[in-house]
Design goal:
- By secondary structure, the chain is mostly helical.
- It is built from nine helices and four strands.
- The chain has helices at about 1-15, 25-35, 45-55, 60-75, 80-85, 85-100, 105-120, 125-140, 215-220; strands at about 180, 190, 195-200, 205-210.
- A two-stranded antiparallel sheet has the order 1-2.
- Strand 3 (about 195-200) and strand 4 form a beta hairpin.
- Helix 3 (about 45-55) runs antiparallel to helix 4, helix 6 (about 85-100) packs antiparallel against helix 7 (about 105-120) and helix 6 (about 85-100) runs parallel beside helix 8.
- It binds the ligand O=P(O)(O)O[C@@H]1[C@H](O)[C@H](OP(=O)(O)O)[C@@H](O)[C@H](O)[C@H]1O.
- Ligand ITP binds next to strand 1.
Length: about 230
């Protein structure tokens, strides 16, 4: 239920950013990634909760929060990238760079802003991030040497959901009675009859059974080619 996941995410965030940690808690960090990739929690909620941790007076919590943010950007795809590069969030990151009392947080933040900018360099949608990097350079912040390999986000994420007036497979028109459903594997919109099956989608980090259409079900369950 939403409550359980909602509460669960706060517990996971507290664990992953605890000042008692001697090293990053990658298990909790990757569980947070999975909750986002499975669409169990919205990226906006997680990134908003992270703000409090990023501005922690405790240097360890603040730095671990930055490592969680780095993992979300690397592993959860465009849904996180779009939240990260909202102007309001970029302005928050700019402010964090100016005001954090923790030098390690500042230098890690500069490294991430540069890496993210390189990764998003071809996409004007993420212009707000470029803007704060330009501003921070003008304000005298020294960005480290870019390591292009750090900017390769390889994780596959489930496709965004398409919309439509008819079932993508049998073409039946949607109505008050004939409801829309989405296949988590291809993102297309279908009637109930064409998406009556479920499957896990490990390639998208989805370990629980989720709704899939008949053709994606056949694709996901056929014995892998020898
Ligand atoms: O409950 P409804 O009012 O029919 O709304 C639909 C359900 O939320 C479907 O969820 P599902 O794919 O998990 O069935 C979703 O895929 C559709 O986009 C929504 O329009």
């Amino acid at each position: 239920s939403l409550f359980r996941t909602g509460k669960n995410i706060d517990v996971l965030l507290d664990k992953a950013t605890s000042h008692l940690l001697m090293e990053p808690d990658w298990v909790s960090t990757l569980q947070i990634c999975d909750l986002i990739r499975q669409n169990d929690v919205q990226p906006k909620q997680v990134l908003t909760s992270l703000k409090k941790k990023l501005t922690s007076q405790n240097p360890h919590s603040a730095l671990y929060a930055l490592l969680v943010l780095e993992s979300l950007v690397k592993n959860c795809g465009t849904v996180v990238h779009e939240e990260l590069t909202q102007k309001t969030y970029c302005d928050f990151l700019h402010e964090l760079g100016k005001t954090t009392p923790h030098e390690k947080v500042r230098s890690k933040l500069l490294e991430l802003i540069q890496t993210w900018n390189f990764a998003f360099r071809k996409n004007p949608k993420h212009g707000a991030l470029k803007n704060i990097m330009t501003l921070m350079k003008a304000e005298g912040y020294k960005f480290p040497t870019l390591r292009e390999s750090d900017a390769m986000f390889s994780a596959d994420t489930a496709p965004e959901w398409a919309d439509g007036d008819v079932c993508h497979r049998c073409r039946v028109p949607f109505s008050m009675i004939q409801r829309k459903h989405h296949c988590r594997a291809c993102g297309q919109v279908f009637c109930g009859q064409c998406t009556s099956k479920t499957s896990t989608l490990p390639k998208y980090g989805i370990e629980k059974e989720v709704r899939v259409c008949d053709s994606c079900y056949d694709e996901a369950t056929k014995p892998s080619a020898a």
